[in-house]
Design goal:
Helices cover 40% and strands 24% of the residues. It is of the alpha+beta class and 191 residues long.
């Protein structure tokens, strides 16, 4: 029966969404409680970004959006690969969710004498100025993005992971000009 098949498919999607939500809430709780100990090893950021891009490839094609990775050289950083993957994936996921068909997303990695910088930029509608001071708060949802999926923990989780690495996260956004999140990871970290 087609109705039963459709119902089961929707139920499966909702269960998957709930599982992701519960997993992210547990991760956030563990980070907030200081229970996470980073497993530092050399992470080739370029490879990490390619892995992230590959996870969004199908969705980007379906939604007619473009993603480009820009890097002048191979950049390695002593970090926790899984947590960095989580943090940067959240930024890319937000960019995908807050852009329209035909829009573009860029991930740029650059190395300075003091930092490894990873910038996720999109040319979407931007973040409303009233929201910029609140977006990293746990469970914060803008009144302007109520039609988008999410519960407001992705940016909190990302910020917590970057803070744990001794870095910081900055954001620039303007209406109809897009948004730019930049992860600043200090190069003083030793393995």
């Amino acid at each position: 029966n087609e109705n039963v098949v459709n119902f089961l498919a929707k139920s499966d999607q909702e269960l998957e969404r709930m599982q992701t939500l519960i997993t992210n809430l547990l991760k956030l709780a563990r980070l907030a409680a200081g229970m996470i100990e980073l497993k530092l090893s050399p992470v080739v950021i370029n490879d990490l970004l390619r892995q992230i891009a590959a996870t969004f490839e199908t969705r980007l094609q379906l939604e007619q959006k473009r993603l480009a990775i820009l890097a002048d050289s191979r950049v390695s950083y002593p970090g926790d690969r899984q947590w960095l993957l989580e943090a940067i994936s959240n930024l890319v996921k937000n960019a995908v969710e807050h852009t329209n068909p035909g829009d573009q997303i860029q991930i740029r990695v650059e190395e300075t004498p003091l930092f490894v910088k990873i910038t996720v930029w999109d040319n979407g509608p931007g973040i409303h100025p009233d929201d910029l001071n609140h977006i990293f708060k746990r469970f914060y949802r803008s009144r302007f993005s109520q039609d988008k999926p999410g519960i407001g923990i992705g940016l909190t989780l990302t910020k917590s992971v970057i803070d744990l690495h001794g870095g910081f996260l900055s954001v620039e956004s303007s209406a109809e000009q897009g948004t730019r999140f930049t992860v600043h990871l200090p190069k003083l970290t030793k393995l």
